[in-house]
Amino acid sequence: MVVGEVAVETDVIVIGGGPGGYAAAIRLGQLGHSVVLVEKAKLGGVCLNRGCIPSKALIHAAGEFHKLQSLAKLGIRLPAGEAQFDLQGWQDWKGSVVGQLTKGVSQLCQANGVTVVYGEAAFMAGNRVGVETGGDFEVYKFGQAIIATGSRPLIPGFVEVDGTHVLDSTDVLKLEEVPASLAIIGGGYIGMELGMALAKLGSKITIVEAAERILPQVAPHLAAEVVKQAKKLGITVKTATKVQAVEVVDQKVEMTVFSEADGEERIHADKALVTIGRIPNTASIGLEQAQVATDLRGYIPVDEHCRTNQPHIYAIGDVTPGPALAHRATKQGIIAAEAISGLPSAVDSPLVPYVIFTEPQVAGVGLTRAEAEAQGYQVKAASFPYRANGRALATLEPDGFAEVIVDADSHLLLGMHVVGADASNLIGEGALALELAARVEDVALTMHPHPTLSEIWVEAAAHALGHAIHVVSKK
């Protein structure tokens, strides 16, 4: 094909088939638009194929394996001999889960009239995108476009990821054997999630974090619960420590680190994992040809409708400033699709819940106490421990607590946070409560089923009001 001779016309082109991109494409199809969705690898993007789903599958499997040590407390006696974890068997299971989900996304796109094109896309002009599709080149002329190209692992210049000894977060999920030892650069949520999972499978884990503590993005008292469990798992955590060099020597990794407390040290491990963050995929998609502006870090600024500086071009997900979370990308994708369709849809709420799948899980939505006080609120905060919840004790999960942050004057809920078993599912109630501008009384007076972990919200809310039943309230 001669470039520019023939262009396929479409109402909207969506570049990137991850959680944001495919949600946008499906919503556009529902609203009657012709849609071309371009994905360079597999539908579902990093999240479904190489990130969220595979990593949570590993975390779940590791957790189930680790629980075997506690079954005797429940009266369960296993046959003599040590249980074994087959990582290759897990890979097969993970593949079946990912395959089922990607097939489902493909079917949904087809059912909603979305044309899926596999290839690498780049803007040629403000109304044209070129797509390389395995030796061929196709041009699409569009009325409007949505950029949803996601992000990739950030690798510092002094580290060379080879996929064998030095890994990124994608490589580690391809392992067929559990490494005897693993050094992790970065104590954020990815490093802690994967490190704790592999520790449960028998790997000796060392985590090096440049900040003063692990999980620096969450409140210190929440992260402290994770630190306790990390120690129980035998994980070595080095905070306020910078990595100076990473070398592969005799098929092993040698890492040179430095801290003010301990000076220069060398860490030896079978493998190293780099998890210091992610960067947006915006450098090679021809944004300059479409005159789409980016900030100094490569992110694309957008308005409340997800429009870029070019009114007919939208951007969503990890390429935009803000937390790199799949559910945020999905929400933005739907908003962009509806804005394109002339519907009154906008990002009208700052509430973005987060979940960290460590041991125990951490989740939250809204303000922390420190954030609320910094904004000038008079704050009432109260928590309720898992150890006082019947369900938690009956299932051997007594660690953690739920916390509510309340405006002392209006009793409006400002934040809800939980660290403990199943926090990932419990935080949905918090997100809904804050979105509905609930007062703490609304939660305290709502009957929750017993015996469930959800009762911790009732007790935390009642505690803030001074009349909790299962914990002594302050007078």
TrEMBL record:
Catalytic activity: N(6)-[(R)-dihydrolipoyl]-L-lysyl-[protein] + NAD(+) = N(6)-[(R)-lipoyl]-L-lysyl-[protein] + NADH + H(+)
Biological process annotations from GO: 2-oxoglutarate metabolic process
InterPro entries associated with the record: Class-I_Pyr_Nuc-Dis_Oxidored (IPR050151), FAD/NAD-bd_sf (IPR036188), FAD/NAD-binding_dom (IPR023753), FAD/NAD-linked_Rdtase_dimer_sf (IPR016156), Lipoamide_DH (IPR006258), Pyr_nuc-diS_OxRdtase (IPR001100), Pyr_nucl-diS_OxRdtase_dimer (IPR004099), Pyr_OxRdtase_I_AS (IPR012999)
Cofactors, names only: FAD
Residues that hold FAD according to the record: 56, 149-151, 318
Keywords on record: Disulfide bond, FAD, Flavoprotein, NAD, Nucleotide-binding, Oxidoreductase, Redox-active center
One matching Pfam family: Pyr_redox_dim
Disulfide bonds: 47-52
Superkingdom as given in the UniProt entry: Bacteria
Location of the FAD/NAD(P)-binding domain: 11-333
Bound cofactor: record note: Binds 1 FAD per subunit.
Domain Pyridine nucleotide-disulphide oxidoreductase dimerisation: 352-461
TM spans (from-to): none
Positions that bind NAD(+): 186-193, 209, 277
Enzyme Commission number, as recorded: 1.8.1.4
Gene3D superfamilies given in the database record: 3.30.390.30, FAD/NAD(P)-binding domain
Active-site residue numbers: 450
Any one GO molecular function term: dihydrolipoyl dehydrogenase (NADH) activity
Other noteworthy facts: The active site is a redox-active disulfide bond.
Family: Belongs to the class-I pyridine nucleotide-disulfide oxidoreductase family.
Protein name: Dihydrolipoyl dehydrogenase
Organism expressing this protein natively: Brevibacillus fluminis
Gene: lpdA
